[in-house]
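A sample copied in:

***
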Amino acid sequence: MAAASMVFTDCSSPAAARLIQRTTPLLLRTAQNAVVFPRRLLNPPRSLSIHSSSSSPSQLSSASIVNEKLEIVNKRLDGKKVAEKIRGEIAEEVLRMKDAIGVVPGLAVILVGDREESATYVSKKKEACEVVGITSFEVHLPENATEQQVLEAISGFNEDPAVHGILVQLPLPRHMDEQNILNAVSIEKDVDGFHPLNIGCLAMRGREPFFVPCTPKGCIELLHRYDIPIKGKRAVVIGRSNIVGMPVALLLQREDATVSIVHSRTKNPEELIKQADIVIAAVGQANMVKGSWVKPGAVVIDVGINPIEDKTKRSGFRLVGDVCYKEAKEIASAITPVPGGVGPMTIAMLLTNTLISAKRIHNFQ
């Protein structure tokens, strides 16, 4: 594929100057309180109608809580299997916390509108909470809801001591200011990791964010669980979105990789990609990365999830990644499948961030 014909889907948007005034008081307060979080929080210990639901962690019967390194089988980095193990670890910690101090972590989700895809994501997150014993809260507002209604829902959860994490399901309706809404989430409960101060701390050496965005965090955790070395490796991130590309590049730098970012203005991207020991693709273009672009023995993390027509399926489509899986699998030493790779890890990291938040708020070790 010629470079000139490549199309990237980039979710990035320039930072608005108005954010500075809004976030500065919080930054000063944080600095005055001398809040310091150790590096290990980036990778957690492995060890208006509101509806609430909670469940016992005992529902998770098959997940192992032993943190042994996983073996790569048939070149697959099995995100579903890793996520199951992580859920087991979280369930154990949730139960320990409940028994010790009587506190159950709580995650609140705000959904605006009736997009089927968003509703499905929210449902999966609620189910995951139930499995590990985290209490889930939900506010579901209509498509024509006002921005003020969303802000009021966020404010309520910010003040609710039973809620330790808040997630605003994206995308929001076009008439709403997404940045204004995301910035309203308390940084101490921003389990999605999208607050500008969280991202700013992630980008700075010697600073630690309250939370790391879930999908990038899941990518790095997947590499750790399979004991894939990152330090000193050459990594290429395809895509520079605020949600995945940019934060995963920052995480790779923190792991001492040498990082390049390929985007819509990169010339000869396939040449850069072919030099990478680790490739993380997050552009939202089906099968864009060909097997011939992959360095022999490279590790490929495919964040993309794209529907393509398939008349053999009852739905009429099937899901594929940004990387041509069949071709790349022949060349790479390991690769994530789509589905079943990064997706389950994203939800597992959301649960992890919620547990971290609850432990931090209640000073529970």
Remarks:
- DSSP finds eleven helices and eleven strands in the chain.
- The mean pLDDT is 85.
- The longest strand covers residues 106-112.
